Sequence to fold (163 residues):
Amino acid sequence: MAVRKITEYPEEVLGKVGQPVTEFGEGLRALCADMFETMYDAEGVGLAAPQIGLNLRLFVMDCEGIKLTAANPEIVSTEGEQSGQEGCLSVGKVPAVLVRPQKARLRAQDENGTWFELDAEGYAARAFLHETDHCDGKLFIDHLPKLRRDMVIKRFKKEKRWD
Ligand code: NI
Fold:
């Protein structure tokens, strides 16, 4: 296992629609092990393949008791509304308030290629939505009004320079 380098805004791969995962088994398990290690190392609750530079529809998460690997994820349904802070390892965890559905149902394949569906609410539902967005080349800041989006990016760039 190894901690991979996290790609950051505005790297191109973060804006690309991911390619479907077609190979399951040993190679994918090894990749996901690296993704979990990278996510824990960065103290995140979710990490998608584009965030380690891979143009793939794949994410891992460990959030509020839901630990899973999701290949070829899609959001089947959503319900309600929640307003809360969200951040992203690829944008330096700079937080912004974002309204999301309160509940979400995820459909995806596990590391062996078996399809599953899972419901989550609150913060875990937010993670489903955020990570599935990554697989579609979308960042959470893309949901923000332009002014607030620019503010997050500005703060991220400023903090980066101080590293
Ligand atoms: Ni993210």
